[in-house]
Amino acid sequence: MAYELYYWSGIQGRGEFVRLALEESAADYLDKGRQPDCDGALLDFLARRDLAQPPFAAPFLKDGDVVIGQTSAILLYLGDRHQLAPKDEAMRIWTHQIQLTIADLVAEAHDVHHPLGANLYYEEQKPEALRRAKYFREERIPQFLAWFETILARNPSGEAHLVGAAVTYADLSLFQVVEGLAYAFPRRMKRALADAPSVAALHQAVARRPRIRAYLESSRRLAFNEQGIFRHYPELDG
Questions:
Q1: Is the pLDDT of residue 30 over 80?
Q2: C-alpha distance from residue 59 to each of 62, 68, 70, 92 (Å)
Q3: Cα angle at 176 between 192 and 96, to 5 degrees?
Q4: Fewer C-beta neighbours within 10 Å, C or N terminus of the chain?
């Protein structure tokens, strides 16, 4: 039975982290975000009263009778089933810890352009966004990338992966974060990646993986835009 991935139409968003894992593992899945009236179907699912464990928000993955919400939890689930996480329990949790940290970075990237809340348009909070962007560019991006550099340097396998000697969902997610940040902050990320060569190398290596490359070149990969998490407002890229 094919997985069903529920996410909003027209944007990569947090659903893209799940798509990359599904694509890398060649899993059979139906992307509900590409179906007619997908947003309505998503809302209808969230409103169901027959689910004992309803997801709070998209993305969520349906695997038969199992429904998993939260990007990091979905990837934990898929990692175990599609060889995208180590089998060793300590390394499995370490991979999950990295993914949760990536989720923190994603949330901070979103809050740059919506520091006061998602209920307001960007234009209604532009002064606050300008202040938030400066801190994010100058302090938080370097801090996060330095941590990933450290992890890559300390990986005992000697391979260019965050965990162990094989690709994990954490590698795929770091690739997506670099893609998103490079779209949102191209000038800052050019300098930041020069100081994080191992992260830059991992990003390039993931992009070259056959299934990922095929996906990136296909119509299934949506372009970044100013409706998603990573948005390019030139005034925020100081």
A1: yes
A2: 10, 9, 6, 22
A3: 100
A4: N
Would you tell me which CATH number, out of the four given (3.10.290.10, 3.30.420.10, 1.20.1640.10, 1.20.1050.10), belongs to the domain 89-223?
Answer: 1.20.1050.10
Report whether pLDDT(112) > 80. Answer: yes
**CA distances (Å), 132 to each of 41, 105, 115, 122, 124, in order?**
35, 14, 7, 12, 14
Give 86's contacts (C-beta < 8 A, 6+ positions apart).
92, 95, 163, 164, 168
Confidence category of residue 238, pLDDT binned at 50, 70, 90: confident
In degrees and rounded to multiples of 5, residue 134 shows phi and psi of -60, -45
**Would you call 132 exposed, middle or buried from its count of C-beta atoms within 10 A (0-12, 13-18, 19+)?**
buried
Nearest Cα to 234, choosing from 167, 137, 146?
Answer: 137
> Residue 87 corresponds to which amino acid?
K
Segment (H or E) for 45: helix 38-46
Dump pLDDT digits (tens) for 3-18: 999 999 999 999 999 9
CATH 3.30.70.20, domain 3-81, yes or no: no
